Structures are given as C-alpha cells and as structure tokens.
Amino acid sequence: MKYLFENIQAVNELLHAKKNVILLTDFDGTLTPIRKHPDLAALSEEIRQILINISQDKAIFLGIITGRSLKQIKKLVQVQDILYVANHGIELEGPGIRSTCPEAKKARSTLWHVYMKLFKSLRHIEGIYVEDKGLSVSLHYRTVKKRCDVEQVSRTLHGITKPFLDRNMLFVHTGKMVYEIRPPVKWNKASAIQWLLTHYFPSEFSEEALLIYLGDDKADIEVFDSLRGKGLTVFVGNPANVSAAEYHHVAGDDSYRSPFTPDTSVADYYVHSSDEVKEFLEHLYSQKQEIHNAVQP
Ligand SMILES: [Mg+2]
C-alpha cells in the first residue's frame, strides 16, 4: 500500500482517463476523527463545504457509507442530493432511492430486547455506551478504562446474544472499540456497494466512472478487498500502527476468539488522517474542475 500524496500523479492520470467519478466514503474516522463518544463526532464546516461542491459537480456521484443510522448520518452530514448508505447497507436514501431491508425490520423487536438487556446488565460499567440505532445496536467500549471491565462487556455480550446467534436471529460484528449487533441479513458495506453498482448507478454513468472508496475500519477493509482492481481505494490511518488492541473478540464464541488485526494492505493507497482526507477531496474537486474547464471551448 502506497502513501497517496507520493503517488498523486498516478491518481491524476486515473481522474483524467475516466469521465466520471463515483466517490463513496465512510464517515467516522474518515471524514471526521474518531471521538471518545460517537455523539461528539461532528463534520467540520470546511469538509461540509467541499462535500457540497462535490455534490454539485454533475460528473461526480457522492455517497456516504456508514454503520450509523440513516437519521443520524443525515443530521451529521447535512448535504442534500447525495446517497446515504446507513446501518451498513440496511438503510439507503438518495436521488431516486429510499429503501430499508425488509428482513432487517423483522429483527427490530429482537434488537430492542438485546439493547435493553445490555443496557441493564452493563450500566454499572464506567465508560460503556449502548447505542440503539433502530435496526442495529452498537456497544461502544472506547472509554471503558479497566481491562477486567472490557472483558466483562465481552462476556455479557456473548451471554445475552448467544441464544439469538445460535438460531441465526442476529449477527455480531467487531469494529474499532465497538461491537455491532446486526440483523441476520447479507448486507454489509461491500455487498451494498456491489448492489449499487449493479442496480442503482445508471450504466452510462458508471461505465465511464472511476470508483473511489475511503474508509478506516474493518468493514471498510472488506470493501477494499471486494474492489481490488475495480477502483481506487484509500485506507485512512497509519498502516504501520493498526492495532489488534482496538478489536476485541466476543468471549466464548469461536468465530470471534482471536483479537483481529485488519489487513490494510488490500487498499491501493493510504492517507494518515481525516485532515488528509480533506486535502484529497479538495484535490479531487479541483482536478475535476480543471478537466471540465479544459474540455470547454
Ligand atoms: Mg469509520
């Protein structure tokens, strides 16, 4: 994986070679730095302005792809006429599309039950945050300080979710200092993008488009892997410093037994931070403007 700004010429060549761009980006840790509490994440006005500019360029299609709920991400981003892929693909909203996965809706009462049980069982643990996202539940432990408490969180999660996992009524995924409890549906960021490429983007646009994807977490790495050779993928973070310590397992569950170190090498490029993402988005926008101006008489 190469540092993007040392290879910007190659990126420019790709931008020149294709008429359009499909720009899909994660939110937390990509457009904004990761905060101690998810409620503290906010988009800077500078990035919002760049996103607005990009959204108004007819040759760029912009989408935000996130694990947050649709309601939350729209409130955080506040850019009109772009695509929002929320809850890891379960909720979609954008030009000409608005859908919620019907199978996921069926899991709502199970998710609520699990949310309440987790909330009641873990509320004594300092720093824990159980988040009800409607069609999924997030269990954030970034600010849980004691190691024994982190282990208790994992054990409790396993105890509460096991009956549902055994009957395929829920899935549990791991992210950076977070567990995601999701409905048992096939949707994830990678499959949502695949669906969009096949069914949503007009073929006359997508056939001439460079697909760019930016993200920082495990779910994004699945996207990088699925897009190998099909687009330009950018990992946000220091590839030498990706730490297994950010990814705990669910105690007692074989599928989550090992702490997980994501393989970032499947991305084409990396940038260090969301500040550099901003720099890249500015560059992308100005390159496209130059290209438009050059072709106009
Ligand atoms: Mg992220």
Structure description:
The protein has 297 residues and is of the alpha/beta class. It has 2 domains: 2-100 and 187-246 and 262-295, HAD superfamily/HAD-like (Rossmann fold, 3-Layer(aba) Sandwich), CATH 3.40.50.1000; 103-182, 2-Layer Sandwich (Alpha-Beta Plaits), CATH 3.30.70. Helices cover 39% and strands 20% of the residues. A 9-stranded mixed sheet has the order 1-13-12-11-2-3-4-5-6, sandwiched between helices. Helix 5 (108-122) runs antiparallel to helix 6 and helix 7 crosses helix 9. The longest helix has 22 residues, at 274-295. Residues 252-258 have low confidence and may be disordered.
Structural class estimated from helices and strands: alpha/beta
Number of helical elements: 10
CATH architecture of the largest domain: 3-Layer(aba) Sandwich
Please mark out the parts with pLDDT under 50 across 5 or more consecutive residues, or reply none: 252-258
**How many beta strands in the DSSP annotation?**
13
CATH class of the largest domain: Alpha Beta
CATH homologous superfamily assignment of the largest domain: HAD superfamily/HAD-like
Overall average residue pLDDT: 91
**Biggest sheet, spatial arrangement of strands:** 1-13-12-11-2-3-4-5-6
